[in-house]
Amino acid sequence: MFDNQKIGMIGCGKMGSILLRGILRCSLVPQGNIRVADAVKERIEEIREGYPGVRSAENRDLVRESDILILAVKPQNMPALLNEISADVNPRQLIISIAAGISTKAIEKHLAGPVRVVRVMPNTPALVEEGATALAAGSSATAEDLETAVRIFEAVGSTVTVSENLMDAVTGLSGSGPGYVFVMLEALADAGVLLGLPRDIALKLAGQTFLGAAKLCLQAGKHPGELKDMVTSPGGTTIAGLKALEEGRLRATLIRAVEAAALRSKALAGDE
Ligand SMILES: NC(=O)C1=CN([C@@H]2O[C@H](COP(=O)(O)OP(=O)(O)OC[C@H]3O[C@@H](n4cnc5c(N)ncnc54)[C@H](O)[C@@H]3O)[C@@H](O)[C@H]2O)C=CC1
Ligand SMILES: O=C(O)[C@@H]1CCC=N1
């Protein structure tokens, strides 16, 4: 599917380089078919050290040479970037944007033409091929474009396709979600340390508990409440811990975190 396609990526920071690694690991295209661009020279040097076959180019040259163009710069940098490349994009290209909050409509408007855009929200566990990615097609993107984008992100984890009005919710939940989980992991490990466990053992137990519980929930296809009940013996230890969580309003706090991040995603659109 990708053999003769040239992929160009503008923005090789945290998320861009994770994606690049996934694309190359799965051999979606040979290294020679990938071009990268970044405003910071050191980022390009790091990539060329890691992947000697990947070539770099200036933004506009890269756009002209790409069949699939991945835009992985910060939302705040998108308007200037889109203006810079607007004369070089063409309707034969597929444009994939991973920028939080930036709608396909805004991209289409900046590029001033019938461009095929797919908006994507990945997350950092893509680094270990356990990413959760949601995709939404823009007005001119074809079913095949969406399928192409899905194939790229399946290289780094699992994917869902949603309608674009749900992308802010996705951003608040799975896009930002790893940040919440890392804070919870750190807190669980700190608790272990408080109770006398060595830090490395506490972190290992906390991490494996998250991993195992998430896998059990996804694979068993059971409601998390039912799985929670399986752990919770009458008069036992878990219910004592759960009572403390309820007193600390953990659930309401998590719901508010996702809501706040989704609102911020929506607000980034206003910054366009
Ligand atoms: N970090 C994360 O967990 C996730 C990030 N995203 C989205 O991915 C995008 C990138 O985020 P990060 O990788 O975290 O940011 P980052 O700051 O690590 O990377 C952005 C890169 O873009 C480069 N850049 C900025 N303007 C440029 C321009 N005009 N031309 C060429 N390069 C340019 C910067 O030098 C930088 O290396 C953002 O839009 C963000 O919303 C999406 C999902 C998760
Ligand atoms: O914090 C951010 O803005 C990016 C988007 C989703 C995850 N990280």
How many strands appear in the DSSP assignment?
8
Morphology: elongated
Mean pLDDT: 96
CATH topology of the largest domain: Rossmann fold
Strand/helix succession: EHEHEHEHEHEEHEHHHHHH
Strands ordered across the widest β-sheet:
3-2-1-4-5-6-7-8
Question: Biggest sheet, open or closed, and with what strands and sense?
Answer: 8 strands, mixed
Q: What distance lies between the first and last C-alpha atoms, to the nearest angstrom?
A: 34 Å
Instruction: Specify the CATH architecture of the largest domain.
Output: 3-Layer(aba) Sandwich
Task: Note the total helix count.
Answer: 12
CATH class descriptor name of the largest domain: Alpha Beta
Which residues sit in consecutive blocks of at least 5 with pLDDT less than 50? Answer: none
Percentage beta strand: 5-15%
- Give me the Rg, rounded: 21 Å
Bound molecules: 1,4-dihydronicotinamide adenine dinucleotide, (2S)-3,4-dihydro-2H-pyrrole-2-carboxylic acid
CATH superfamily of the largest domain: NAD(P)-binding Rossmann-like Domain
Structural class: alpha/beta
Number of domains: 2
Helix content: 40-55%
Features of this protein?
272 residues, alpha/beta, eight-stranded mixed sheet, 12 helices, 8 strands, 54% helix, binds 1,4-dihydronicotinamide adenine dinucleotide, binds (2S)-3,4-dihydro-2H-pyrrole-2-carboxylic acid, proline biosynthesis, EC 1.5.1.2, NAD(P)-bd_dom_sf, cytoplasm, Pyrroline-5-carboxylate reductase
